[in-house]
Amino acid sequence: MDLKTKLEELAESSMTAIKNSDTLDEIETLRVQLLGKKGALTDLLKMMKDLEASERPVVGKLANEIRDDLTERITDKKEELEQQALNEQLKEETIDVTLPGRQYKKGQTHVIHQVMEEMEDLFLGMGYKIISGSEIVSDYLNFERVNVPQDHPARDMQDSFYINDHYLLRTQTSAVQPLIIEAHDFSQGPLKVISPGKVYRRDSDDATHSHQFHQIEGIVVDENITMADLMGTLEVMSKEIFGADRRVRFRPSYFPFTEPSVEVDVSCFNCDGAGCRICKHSGWIEILGAGMIHPNVLEMSHVDSTKYSGFAFGVGPDRMAMLKYGVDDIRHFFLNDQRFLSQFHQKGEE
Ligand code: DAH
Question: How confident is the chain (350 residues) per 10-residue block, as mean pLDDT?
Fold first, then answer.
């Protein structure tokens, strides 16, 4: 086969190959194979030197035309493929504004705080103020000023985390009592306060104990406050939180800061008093401690205990949440497991 025919065949087959190239990679490979230094066309051109002198200009011209033609075709094809790739990319990156947006999960109020807020709403409705206290207090405020002297055995039950010799993480919200009572101006009306917050004890953690938990302290002081006021208030509270058909029971008890003292039980939400595993077969569940504020506590806060009297109570919202929702381990509340926490929705939260 002579060179001219070879060139024509190469031109023919190359045109088909260019046409059939689908990707930029393919066309680039083809360009190198045809027009590169070691390419097919270059190889054929090297054979020019073997031609008759008379043939060279003719074949040379043809070879140049073929090279120019192929170069142009390859460039065109490249542009076409580049445009195609760009179009596809644009198509993929088009924003479809009719698609729904990405859903972000909204947070929700922690179940303990839901119970606390429910209590706050209730007591605000009964004319109470909310005052929160410091979590780091002197042992003097945490104990002495609520009538628990240095060597009182009650201190053993409330071992805590000391910051130094005199300051500790409060073991009870009762530690807010002294300053709140002391600061109250009785010419402005009765003292009615609740104080919710965190407390700490060096308990070993188990299903019903955690080294950190919550309390809500209630304090009412005025002239002629009696045990009947305390009982009425706690009965309203219990029924509001646990349901109107719950019964409330008061048992005599002992706390250093109240005299007399009571512990308050509500009839078991699960068995309605018949006895079950949750109420340890007693039919009742203890929810709080309370009593008439000890005269010593009033006097230490410069309140005349012959003129004024009051009641106080301390209730655990963690305990309440466990009872309300049948949660059997207090530690669930503090592990931050979304699968657990997201089950408790408050009104208005989804
Ligand atoms: N501070 C007590 C405790 O942590 C609870 C308590 C009992 C608070 C009786 C009171 C009260 O105000 O009157 O165990």
Answer: 87 91 91 90 85 85 90 93 90 85 85 95 97 96 94 83 94 97 97 97 80 96 97 92 89 96 90 86 92 98 98 94 86 91 80
- 260 prior amide bond cis, ω within 30: yes
Distance, in Å, from the CA atom of 53 to the CA atom of 51, rounded to the nearest integer, reads 6
Instruction: Give yes or no for a contact between 81 and 24, defined as CB atoms under 8 angstroms apart.
Output: yes
Nearest CA to 225 among 287, 159, 312, 301?
312
If DSSP codes are grouped into helix, strand and coil, which group holds residue 104?
Answer: coil
* Distance from Cα 217 to the centre of ligand 1, integer Å: 7
pLDDT of amino acid 144: 95
The whole-number pLDDT of residue 159 equals 83
In whole angstroms, what is the distance from residue 173 CA to residue 167 CA? 15
Alpha-carbon distances of 326 from 123, 321, 332, rounded to whole Å: 24, 8, 12
Q: How far is CA 194 from CA 186, 223, 329, in A?
A: 17, 19, 26
Residue nearest to atom 6 of ligand 1 (CA): 314
Tell me the CB-side half-sphere exposure of residue 46, using CA atoms within 13 A: 9
The two three-digit tokens of residue 80, written as one number: 């076409």
Residues in the chain: 350
DSSP assignment string, 291-349: EEEPHHHHHHTT--TTT-EEEEEEE-HHHHHHHHHT---GGGGGS--HHHHTT-PPTT-
- Looking at residue 113, its amino acid is H
Closest ligand 1 atom, residue 258 Cα: 13
**Nearest-5° Cα angle at 309, 254 to 194:** 75
Spatial CA neighbour of 292 closest among 147, 182, 186, 115: 147
> 3-class SS at 244?
coil
Best probe residue, ligand 1, of 208, 214, 221, 255 (max atoms within 8 Å of C-beta): 255
The pLDDT, as a whole number, for residue 203 is: 76
* 262 contacts 251 by C-beta, under 8 angstroms: yes
